[in-house]
């Protein structure tokens, strides 16, 4: 298994510095990671550093709770792609979900997916599975499918609860092979990463990608 091709090498600390972005990009190229995920502020420098490399650039939209109005998130997406992002992870509005405002949620997801796809890029729909019921998760997944999202992901990693193998299995049971799944998880070994892949994850977001290859 080419484990590196599953890894989104991630640095989203609120206080990260340019030197750390440069280091993460170097590690990604060295090991052949799929994508580097950085804060929106660092998309352009990361894209410059990775120009001509196979490793892609990704960033987050509406992070971490999706509170921003939909038009603002759409503009975030456009700016990120113009700066060089190949992928975006867009957080849905958790307040709208908990209030059963599914028309709002559907418009939010569809607007973000449309803005991304019109520019020929990939979108991952991101939510906090640990704060939601199974039924809410099913509804989000169905909307993501209808909006032709490229990936779904059940944790921002911000709320203190990473994805579990069980979450990945639940998402796979809901969507089958109709949409890809990304897991956000702390991994300490190659075996940890392979457990998530066997459960159905096609991508793993982690700051410990180098550790996983040992």
User: What is the H level of CATH, i.e. the homologous superfamily?
Assistant: Aldolase class I
Number of helices, where a helix is a run of at least 4 consecutive DSSP H or I residues = 9
Task: Give, in order, the helices and strands.
Answer: EHEHEHEHHEHEHEHEH
CATH class: Alpha Beta
Shape, principal axes of CA atoms? globular
Largest sheet: 8 strands, parallel, barrel
Oligomer: single chain
- Tell me, rounded to a whole number, the average pLDDT: 95
Brief summary:
44% of the residues lie in helices and 17% in strands. The chain has 214 residues and is of the alpha/beta class. Strand 3, helix 3 and strand 4 form a beta-alpha-beta unit.
What would your notes on this structure say?
With 214 residues, this protein is an alpha/beta fold. It has one domain: TIM Barrel, CATH 3.20.20. It is built from nine helices and eight strands. An eight-stranded parallel barrel has the order 1-2-3-4-5-6-7-8, surrounded by six helices. Helix 3 links the parallel strand 3 and strand 4. Helix 5 packs parallel to helix 6. The longest helix is centred in the middle third of the chain and has 17 residues, at 102-118. The model has no long low-confidence stretch (mean pLDDT 95).
Please tag this protein with its features.
single chain, 214 residues, alpha/beta, TIM Barrel, 9 helices, 17% strand
List the helices and strands and how they pair.
Blueprint: E1 7-10, H1 18-31, E2 35-38, H2 43-49, E3 56-61, H3 70-83, E4 87-91, H4 94-98, H5 102-118, E5 122-126, H6 134-146, E6 151-153, H7 165-175, E7 180-184, H8 190-199, E8 203-206, H9 209-212
Parallel strand pairs: 1-2, 1-8, 2-3, 3-4, 4-5, 5-6, 6-7, 7-8
């Amino acid at each position: 298994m080419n484990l590196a091709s599953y890894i989104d090498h991630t640095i989203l600390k609120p206080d990260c510095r340019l030197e750390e972005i440069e280091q993460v990009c170097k590690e990604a190229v060295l090991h052949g990671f799929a994508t580097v995920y950085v804060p929106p502020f660092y998309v352009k420098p990361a894209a410059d550093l990775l120009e001509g490399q196979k490793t892609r650039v990704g960033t987050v939209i509406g992070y971490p709770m999706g509170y921003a109005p939909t038009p603002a998130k759409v503009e975030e997406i456009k700016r990120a792609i113009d700066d060089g992002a190949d992928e975006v992870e867009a957080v849905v509005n958790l307040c709208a979900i908990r209030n059963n405002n599914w028309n709002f949620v559907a418009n939010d997801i569809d607007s973000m997916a449309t803005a991304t796809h019109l520019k020929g890029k990939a979108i991952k729909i991101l939510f906090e599975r640990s704060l939601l019921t199974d039924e809410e998760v099913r509804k989000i997944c169905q909307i993501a499918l209808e909006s032709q999202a490229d990936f779904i992901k059940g944790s921002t990693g911000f709320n203190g609860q990473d994805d579990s193998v069980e979450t990945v299995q639940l998402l796979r049971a809901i969507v089958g092979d109709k949409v890809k799944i990304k897991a956000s998880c702390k991994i300490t070994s190659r075996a940890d990463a392979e457990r998530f892949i066997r459960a159905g994850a096609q991508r793993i977001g982690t700051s410990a990608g180098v550790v996983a290859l040992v």
